[in-house]
Description:
Layout: E1 28-30, E2 33-35, H1 37-41, E3 49-50, E4 58-59, E5 72-78, E6 83-90, E7 97-108, E8 113-116, E9 130-140, E10 145-157, E11 162-164, H2 169-173, E12 179-182, E13 200-202, E14 206-207, E15 209-211
Antiparallel strand pairs: 1-2, 3-15, 4-11, 5-10, 5-12, 6-9, 6-15, 7-8, 7-10, 11-14, 12-13
Amino acid sequence: MTVTSRFALTKPQPTELADPALLNGNWDIIDNELSYTENAGAGSTGCLAATYSRLGASTIASAGAATSGQPRLMGIVLKKGTLVSHLTVWAGTTAGASMTHSWMGLADASRNKLGVTNDITTATWTASTSRTFDMVSPYTVPSTGFYYVVLCVVGTTMPTIEGVANLAAGARNAAPIAGGNSSTTGLTTPGGAPATYGALTVLGQHHYVEVT
């Protein structure tokens, strides 16, 4: 590997680089600051961060958006100072129907709620189309690290969600769990989101989510 002179590899900041394993190679060290160029750079216009590179997204044909009213949490690395105003996710090849609620949110690595979005009550979600949810209160990331984006859908026919289908078993089970279904169930509106989401049952699937 060739390291060019623009990379300042001396005097790393311990608070920023405390757990580089969480970064999954998606950063450059430039003047001792983390720049999430790979994921955000491959995202759609205005993307500030993403759960992983958009170039790896495929349709999850079997997992959908969990059970109706059960939140699903997906890990994401966010950089200090990022203003999270919107969260976007894409339906897969199966459309959603007879839906009454759909919303998203943000949580820390311990699953503590940091914020929620508006509630989209449109009954259908067309296959292969996006939904962008607006944070009720935009959230400024206080420190670089691991967070969760939350998706909760309530309805009769659950949409599939675009993402990767098979994360390696060893990596996805390491703490903090890469993503999974929360033990919290029976949610409807974002106002009912708990202060702390219940423990996760790990999933091999990982939804593609963008932060803007």
